[in-house]
Specification:
InterPro entries: Leu-rich_rpt, Leu-rich_rpt_Cys-con_subtyp, LRR_dom_sf, LRR_R13L4/SHOC2-like. By secondary structure, this protein is of the alpha/beta class. The protein has a domain of about 120 residues: Leucine-rich repeat, LRR (right-handed beta-alpha superhelix) (Alpha-Beta Horseshoe), CATH 3.80.10. Helix content is about 20%, strand content about 10%. The chain contains 20 helices and 20 strands.
Amino acid sequence: MGGACSRKRDQREGDLDDGYGGSARFSRSFYFRWPSRNFERDISDEQDNANKAPSLLELAVRETCKNTQGIKSFEKLPRDLTQKILNELVQTQALSRELFQAFEDCAIQDIYLGYYPGVDDSWMEVIGSQKFCLLAVDFSGSMVTDEGVQCLQICENVEIICMNECKYISDISLSYFTGFTNLTSLSFQKNKLITPAGMRHLAGLPNLKHLDLERCPKIHDGLVYIKGLTKLEKLNLGWCNCIRSSDMKQLSGLTNLLELQISRSKVKDFGITFLKDLKKLEVLNMEGCPVTFACMDTIAGLTSLTTLNLKSCYISDFGCRKLEGLGNLKNLNLSYTNVSDAGMVYLKNLKSLQFLNLDSCKIGDQGVQNFKNLVNLKSLDLSDSLIGNHALNFLTGLSKLESLNISSTMVTDMGLHKISGLTSLKSLNIDSRQITDTGLMALTSLTNLTHLDLFSARITDYGIGSLRHFKKLQSLEVCGGGITDVGVKSLKDLTDLTYLNLSQNGQLTDQALEALSGLTKLVSLNVGNSSVTNAGLQHLLPLKNLTSLALQSCKVTLWAIQKLQASSLPNLVIVRLR
């Protein structure tokens, strides 16, 4: 059994036998190395692999998961195979409490049960039985209590613990982790019971690198216990409205910090001064903090910053002056601030910028001219700004631009042809009543678009025919009220669509649903405020991937929807009728 636990601490699950597709999906994200999308199958991945012959290991895992009746223990199987069987059972929602007992003493290294239904203290005994082999565990959103967490005391090699949104876990649970010298990542978001009394146990975790306390409302004065955790690289205090400027003093010595989240806290300008020595800081999120231009002197000294979020802060053009020296910035969010054209001149030399968000700022055509040399921009958000058609002249050279949002601006049809050469665009938002069929037809060269938002644009059946050029579209919103059943027929060849919003088009009938029946990749469909009836639901039967359906103010009954779910669309879990 000991040999099964020999994986090195820095060896990832993906570094093991890669014959099974599940392992290939493992990756270390912000904190953890869990499969993406919470173990839910990626529809596009499944369809891409549909024509590939499964490996022998994959076949063995699937066959085992289909025939678990009578299995009392997986202990005699190779550890790698047991791990993959557990992953598959969780992913397919086929793991019961009784079946989980069969994994007792199996030397499992990674146990992901985050938001899995029914997890409580009785599951923790099996988790604890993995003892020193357990490296990572997630039981977020569960009913686990302090008593259940106590089972982890013997898992002294654990590196990652995630217990977000566990409402019955208190300070007592943190005491069980004292002495876990291998623990590098700990997360307990949205915990209302953790206080400074519990946080004192964090001082005994010397190798902690990632700590996530987001939305923990009672940790004020508790940061004193993490000031000695000098290996910390990522700290999330976002939405902790109990955190004040004085708390920032405890962070002043954490000079290895690479990422700090203090969004929506009560940290003011004075508190930011304590960050001046965090020279390695690459990511700083201050969204919604009551800071002004006075804090910008400190930020100007953090020259390693690549991401800076000042959304909804009291920052003006004067504060923008301090951004000039941040030459490594790749991601800058100034949305909902008081910056205007005058402040944009200080951005023109930030040549590394890839993402720039100026949503709801007083930016006009004059300000946008400073962006013409930001040739590395991939995403630009100018929504709800003061720009007009002339501003688009300054974007024509941004050949790497993949996402552009100019919704709710003064841009009209006449201006859209100016961006028709931005063929790298994948996402375009032109949600505006000033956009009509004419403007849409000027964009047919943007054949790489995967996301197109025409929510309030005045598009009719005539204009929607232009969408046939956008074969790669995955997401589409056309809700201006001018589309009929005839126009919907133009969408039948957009077979990659997964999200489609046609709400507010009152002339759509059951025939529209018939026209959409071939879009089998659809996951979300909205035809609210239309003339669709119960009779039209039959056309949705081929849409086996549909999980969300909106039918507000339609002549559709709950009984008809329930019948549809029971007979043909078991994955349909979100239904809106009112």
